[in-house]
Amino acid sequence: LKILTEEKDRSPKGLRDKALLELLYGSGLRISEAISLDIDHIDLHQQTIKVMGKGSKERIVPITAKCREAILKYLEQRGAFNPKQGEKALFLGIRGKRLNRRQALRIIENACKKAGIPHPISPHTLRHTFATHMLEGGADLRSVQKLLGHSRLSTTQRYTHITMGKIAKIYDSSHPRAKKK
Protein backbone atom coordinates (compact mmCIF):
# COMPACT_ATOMS: atom_id res chain seq x y z
CA LEU A 1 0.00 0.00 0.00
CA LYS A 2 1.42 3.27 -1.13
CA ILE A 3 0.12 5.29 1.85
CA LEU A 4 2.14 3.11 4.22
CA THR A 5 5.43 3.48 2.37
CA GLU A 6 5.39 7.23 1.80
CA GLU A 7 7.40 9.87 3.64
CA LYS A 8 9.06 9.13 6.95
CA ASP A 9 7.77 11.93 9.21
CA ARG A 10 9.59 11.50 12.56
CA SER A 11 7.50 14.14 14.39
CA PRO A 12 5.15 12.92 17.16
CA LYS A 13 2.21 13.62 14.83
CA GLY A 14 3.86 11.75 11.95
CA LEU A 15 4.63 8.76 14.19
CA ARG A 16 1.04 8.71 15.47
CA ASP A 17 -0.34 8.86 11.94
CA LYS A 18 1.94 6.03 10.78
CA ALA A 19 0.93 3.86 13.77
CA LEU A 20 -2.77 4.46 13.07
CA LEU A 21 -2.45 3.63 9.36
CA GLU A 22 -0.39 0.49 10.07
CA LEU A 23 -3.00 -0.65 12.59
CA LEU A 24 -5.98 -0.04 10.31
CA TYR A 25 -4.45 -1.94 7.41
CA GLY A 26 -2.41 -4.51 9.33
CA SER A 27 -5.22 -5.67 11.61
CA GLY A 28 -8.32 -4.77 9.61
CA LEU A 29 -9.85 -2.63 12.35
CA ARG A 30 -12.83 -0.36 11.94
CA ILE A 31 -11.91 3.30 12.46
CA SER A 32 -14.12 3.41 15.57
CA GLU A 33 -12.27 0.39 17.00
CA ALA A 34 -8.86 1.94 16.39
CA ILE A 35 -9.63 5.31 17.97
CA SER A 36 -11.31 3.70 20.98
CA LEU A 37 -8.17 1.69 21.86
CA ASP A 38 -6.52 2.37 25.20
CA ILE A 39 -2.82 1.84 25.84
CA ASP A 40 -3.56 -1.15 28.06
CA HIS A 41 -5.39 -2.87 25.17
CA ILE A 42 -2.03 -3.47 23.50
CA ASP A 43 0.26 -6.37 24.31
CA LEU A 44 3.42 -5.56 22.39
CA HIS A 45 5.17 -8.67 23.71
CA GLN A 46 2.46 -10.98 22.30
CA GLN A 47 1.87 -8.65 19.32
CA THR A 48 -1.87 -8.51 19.97
CA ILE A 49 -4.52 -5.95 20.74
CA LYS A 50 -7.81 -6.28 22.58
CA VAL A 51 -10.54 -4.77 20.42
CA MET A 52 -14.05 -3.86 21.48
CA GLY A 53 -16.13 -4.37 18.35
CA LYS A 54 -19.74 -3.84 17.39
CA GLY A 55 -22.24 -5.03 19.96
CA SER A 56 -19.56 -4.70 22.68
CA LYS A 57 -17.97 -7.93 21.47
CA GLU A 58 -14.36 -8.24 22.53
CA ARG A 59 -11.79 -9.95 20.35
CA ILE A 60 -8.03 -10.38 20.36
CA VAL A 61 -6.36 -9.43 17.07
CA PRO A 62 -2.71 -9.87 16.08
CA ILE A 63 -0.68 -6.91 14.92
CA THR A 64 2.06 -7.02 12.32
CA ALA A 65 5.72 -6.53 13.19
CA LYS A 66 5.63 -3.21 11.27
CA CYS A 67 2.61 -2.10 13.26
CA ARG A 68 4.29 -3.07 16.54
CA GLU A 69 7.36 -1.06 15.55
CA ALA A 70 5.23 1.95 14.55
CA ILE A 71 3.28 1.84 17.83
CA LEU A 72 6.50 1.60 19.87
CA LYS A 73 7.97 4.63 18.10
CA TYR A 74 4.73 6.57 18.59
CA LEU A 75 4.49 5.64 22.29
CA GLU A 76 7.98 7.04 22.82
CA GLN A 77 6.67 10.41 21.56
CA ARG A 78 3.07 10.24 22.89
CA GLY A 79 3.95 12.62 25.73
CA ALA A 80 4.48 15.41 23.19
CA PHE A 81 0.66 15.58 22.88
CA ASN A 82 0.50 16.61 26.56
CA PRO A 83 -2.08 14.02 27.59
CA LYS A 84 -4.18 14.88 30.62
CA GLN A 85 -3.35 12.99 33.81
CA GLY A 86 -4.74 9.46 33.52
CA GLU A 87 -5.55 9.70 29.79
CA LYS A 88 -5.68 6.08 28.61
CA ALA A 89 -6.34 6.64 24.91
CA LEU A 90 -3.71 5.18 22.61
CA PHE A 91 -4.18 7.74 19.84
CA LEU A 92 -4.20 11.38 20.93
CA GLY A 93 -5.10 14.58 19.16
CA ILE A 94 -3.13 17.81 19.45
CA ARG A 95 -4.98 18.81 22.64
CA GLY A 96 -3.96 15.65 24.45
CA LYS A 97 -7.36 13.97 24.27
CA ARG A 98 -8.52 10.87 22.43
CA LEU A 99 -8.33 11.23 18.66
CA ASN A 100 -11.83 11.61 17.21
CA ARG A 101 -13.26 10.17 14.02
CA ARG A 102 -12.94 13.40 12.04
CA GLN A 103 -9.25 13.73 12.98
CA ALA A 104 -8.60 10.10 12.03
CA LEU A 105 -10.30 10.60 8.66
CA ARG A 106 -8.12 13.66 8.07
CA ILE A 107 -5.01 11.58 8.81
CA ILE A 108 -6.01 9.11 6.09
CA GLU A 109 -6.86 11.93 3.68
CA ASN A 110 -3.47 13.60 4.24
CA ALA A 111 -1.64 10.28 3.79
CA CYS A 112 -3.42 9.83 0.45
CA LYS A 113 -2.37 13.32 -0.67
CA LYS A 114 1.26 12.70 0.31
CA ALA A 115 1.21 9.39 -1.56
CA GLY A 116 -0.19 11.05 -4.68
CA ILE A 117 -3.52 9.23 -4.51
CA PRO A 118 -6.00 11.61 -6.17
CA HIS A 119 -9.09 10.62 -4.17
CA PRO A 120 -8.88 9.86 -0.46
CA ILE A 121 -9.59 6.27 0.45
CA SER A 122 -11.96 5.47 3.27
CA PRO A 123 -10.98 3.64 6.46
CA HIS A 124 -13.23 0.85 5.25
CA THR A 125 -11.09 0.55 2.11
CA LEU A 126 -8.11 -0.25 4.35
CA ARG A 127 -10.23 -2.87 6.14
CA HIS A 128 -11.43 -4.28 2.83
CA THR A 129 -7.84 -4.40 1.52
CA PHE A 130 -6.75 -6.23 4.69
CA ALA A 131 -9.47 -8.86 4.20
CA THR A 132 -8.76 -9.26 0.49
CA HIS A 133 -5.01 -9.64 1.05
CA MET A 134 -5.63 -12.20 3.80
CA LEU A 135 -7.91 -14.26 1.56
CA GLU A 136 -5.57 -13.99 -1.44
CA GLY A 137 -2.71 -15.04 0.82
CA GLY A 138 -4.52 -18.27 1.69
CA ALA A 139 -6.36 -17.42 4.91
CA ASP A 140 -9.62 -19.28 5.30
CA LEU A 141 -12.89 -17.38 5.41
CA ARG A 142 -13.66 -18.31 9.04
CA SER A 143 -10.33 -16.92 10.25
CA VAL A 144 -10.88 -13.66 8.37
CA GLN A 145 -14.40 -13.51 9.82
CA LYS A 146 -12.97 -13.79 13.33
CA LEU A 147 -10.25 -11.19 12.68
CA LEU A 148 -12.79 -8.70 11.32
CA GLY A 149 -15.23 -9.33 14.16
CA HIS A 150 -18.11 -10.29 11.88
CA SER A 151 -20.87 -12.23 13.60
CA ARG A 152 -22.14 -13.68 10.30
CA LEU A 153 -20.03 -15.44 7.70
CA SER A 154 -22.17 -13.90 4.94
CA THR A 155 -20.80 -10.48 5.90
CA THR A 156 -17.24 -11.71 5.39
CA GLN A 157 -18.15 -13.41 2.11
CA ARG A 158 -18.54 -9.97 0.50
CA TYR A 159 -14.76 -9.87 0.30
CA THR A 160 -14.48 -13.12 -1.66
CA HIS A 161 -15.67 -11.85 -5.05
CA ILE A 162 -12.36 -10.09 -5.60
CA THR A 163 -10.39 -13.27 -5.04
CA MET A 164 -12.44 -15.43 -7.45
CA GLY A 165 -10.00 -14.73 -10.30
CA LYS A 166 -7.15 -16.07 -8.23
CA ILE A 167 -9.23 -19.07 -7.17
CA ALA A 168 -10.02 -19.84 -10.83
CA LYS A 169 -6.27 -19.78 -11.68
CA ILE A 170 -5.49 -22.10 -8.77
CA TYR A 171 -8.31 -24.41 -9.82
CA ASP A 172 -7.14 -24.49 -13.43
CA SER A 173 -3.56 -25.24 -12.45
CA SER A 174 -4.36 -27.71 -9.65
CA HIS A 175 -7.36 -29.83 -10.61
CA PRO A 176 -6.42 -32.72 -12.91
CA ARG A 177 -9.62 -32.45 -14.98
CA ALA A 178 -9.39 -28.66 -15.34
CA LYS A 179 -6.12 -28.79 -17.27
CA LYS A 180 -6.43 -28.04 -20.94
CA LYS A 181 -4.96 -30.50 -23.42
Write the layout of secondary structure elements.
Blueprint: H1 2-5, H2 12-27, H3 31-35, E1 42-43, E2 48-52, E3 58-62, H4 65-77, H5 101-114, H6 123-136, H7 141-148, H8 153-156, H9 164-174
Antiparallel strand pairs: 1-2, 2-3
Explain this structure.
The protein has helices spanning 2-5, 12-27, 31-35, 65-77, 101-114, 123-136, 141-148, 153-156, 164-174; strands at residues 42-43, 48-52, 58-62. It contains 9 helices and 3 strands. The mean pLDDT is 85. 49% of the residues lie in helices and 7% in strands. The protein has a 3-stranded antiparallel beta sheet with strand order 1-2-3, with no helix packed on it. It is globular and about 65 Å long. Helix 2 runs antiparallel to helix 4 and helix 2 (12-27) crosses helix 6 (123-136).
Concise structural overview:
The chain is mainly alpha-helical and 181 residues long.
Largest sheet: 3 strands, antiparallel
Number of helices: 9
Helix and strand composition category: mainly alpha
Shape: globular
Strand order of the largest sheet: 1-2-3
Proportion of residues in extended strands: 5-15%
Approximately how much helix is present in the residues? 40-55%
Q: Cα distance, first to last residue?
A: 39 Å
Q: Estimate the mean pLDDT confidence.
A: 85
Sequence stretches where pLDDT stays below 50 over 5 or more residues: none
